[in-house]
Amino acid sequence: MLPSSEGNTLLDAIASPSRPRRGLAFPRIAGPPAKQEQESELTSKTTKTGTRRRRYSPEFKAEAVKLVLDENLTQAQVCRDLGLPDSVLGRWVSAARVLPESGSLTDAERVELVALRREVRVLRKERDILKKAAAFFAKETL
Angle 86-98/75-82 helices, nearest 10 degrees? Predict the structure, then answer.
């Protein structure tokens, strides 16, 4: 017990609303356990604070994003159906929209495309100059 003139105990001192709670760390309470059908789709990891963080497989993420993008379901509806937080699915959907499509060009192909377009531009200029020169010399000879 803390010695004090008022006779407060240590518990009273900690729980007192007039004292700020500094240095106290309360454990976080984890949410409800995952549903049975989702257990194969996710694993969990314990963080430094002792909370459990769910990890989802890439296939599960792809299917959830597909429901939003291809099936035209709302994010809120998919989150409710799959038991996901809104922010998690929102991040997945945003990342999927940013990723290039499977038929798009790679970085190396983009660099090559830029170089080829530059070369085509130079060759067209050279061709146009040669056409004008040929026309000029053709007029002089007649």
Answer: 120
